[in-house]
Amino acid sequence: MSHIFTALPQVLVDGLTLGAIYAVVALGYTMVYGILELINFAHGEVFMTGAFIGTGLLLSLGMFGIDMPAWITLILILIMTALLTGLLGIGIERLAYRPLRKAPKLIPLISAIGISFILQDLVRFVAEMKTGNYIVTGTTLFEGKFTIPFSSIIGSFQNATIKTNTIILIGITIVIMILLDIFVNRTKWGTAMRAVAQDQETASLMSINVNKVISLTFFIGSAIGGATGFLFAQQYATIDPYIGFILGLKAFTAAVLGGIGNIRGAMFGGLMLGVLEVFAAANLSTLTGGVLGSEYKDVFAFAILILVLIFKPEGLFGKSVKEKV
Amino acid sequence: MTKRALLEMSQVSAYYDQIQALQDISLEVNMGEIVTLVGSNGAGKSSTLKAICGQIKTSGTISFLGNDISKLPPHQTAKLGVAHVPEGRRIFPKLTVKENLEMGAFQLKSKKDIEQQMELVYQYFPRVKERLHQKGGTMSGGEQQMLAIGRALMSKPSILLLDEPSMGLAPIIVEQIFEIIQELNQTGMTILLVEQNAYQALSIAHRGYVIQTGKIILTDSAQNLLENKQVTEAYLA
């Protein structure tokens, strides 16, 4: 049992890494839900597409022999990936959701699933055409590794190791979350986004172009999700066209945990889910005396979702009653 | 007062699904007037305002300042200077009072203009100023109505469309709000006022239209309508 305690620092580092990814992807779900009450199930695939676009860009840079400092490459690729996946998000909304805006809620959900399959197959097709295999391993921009001396803080802790990539991932996702929070809460267009989420009809009377705000929402959600896809690829090295499915489900879980539609809730839900999942993966077999192995970590994650839904269906940060007049 | 039609509807009809909500509505509002549209529940008063704003599809022509606005979506109609205070006030409940006002000024580009309009709103509604950082949804009905009118004023509109500003409010608050409407008009604001409370509306208006089951059945000066037997029996009893 003491193993649980001594390994805690590493669990925390790995958990926050995974959680930061969940958090940013969860933001995409929660923003779209907040504004359209639509669960954009294609969002996990936008994340996956971002992972492939970013990795593809990195590999082509290598192919053309373009050599830049790693951090410039990183920033360039992140911006390009964000732009492209942002546009992809706008396109998905235009093609698959906008024509169905007045349809019953179930219909756009089906078309979201359709878009998911299309993206999976499209990415698989392109990846196989270019590399001969749909499982792609990219090059790593940063190779470094550090040891955080937790043992010098509390004697019984083990030290945790952290990759340079992980530091970058956590750093950039935190910057994304802070910027998004500022945008939504402090800027004119961010306020317009919240206004549209509360009352589209009245927002349009304020000369707010509701469609433009919706496009903007899809752009931002998809751009940050796609950029995080590339960070994910850097962190875990190997990607395939199906990584978006389970990750999307978990990010959606995180959004529900935090109270869907609630931006800060999604951030918190993501981080919490990441830490809990890694904790489960590291300790399930110890805790259950070897009955359940670490492969049951997903069961653990979704069991938490079910528990939250039973006891606090509005999510940890959600309001139980919608204030819609 | 020089008669110049600011807003003109002619032969406007509108449907909700299969049901006809408006039938050949023709009305005009001149610069500087308060015009009121009175009628009972479901007569088509709100639909008329929604038709002007482009919230429902219509046939016929609606012109504002000489532009045909009948096919414009709501956000473009608003940009031309039509400010609509919707029925039930429709404050953004989770935005602060200040944010609500800022949304009203969404189309204004310069910070100076926005501040100027804010000051104007504070002048008419000092109560709004006291509550700037409170969430809109936490205010009382009367305060919300004041905020809704203030929010509409933020866009520097040429005309104010008011949909049942008296709805659900205590008589004393209604009186205050009607006084403010009159004051606004005295400083040059043109107003189209939709009301179920016909007596109150007609007593501050210049002219009035009576609407019944989607049709205009009567129009006259407000004074004459107040004395009209048909009107007094149907709406002022």
Outline the structure in words.
The complex is a heterodimer of chains A (325) and B (237). Chain A is mainly alpha-helical. Chain A has a single domain, classed as ABC transporter involved in vitamin B12 uptake, BtuC (Orthogonal Bundle). Chain A is built from twelve helices and four strands; from the N terminus they run H-H-H-H-H-E-E-E-H-H-H-H-E-H-H-H. Chain A has a two-stranded antiparallel ribbon. A two-stranded antiparallel ribbon of chain A has the order 2-3. In chain A, helix 4 packs across helix 9 and helix 10 packs parallel to helix 12. The radius of gyration of chain A is 20 Å and the shape is globular. In chain A, 47% of the residues are buried. Chain B is of the alpha/beta class and 237 residues long. Chain B has a six-stranded mixed sheet, with helices on both faces. A four-stranded antiparallel sheet of chain B has the order 2-1-4-5, covered by helices on one side. The two termini of chain B are 33 Å apart. The interface between A and B is medium-sized, with 20 and 26 residues.
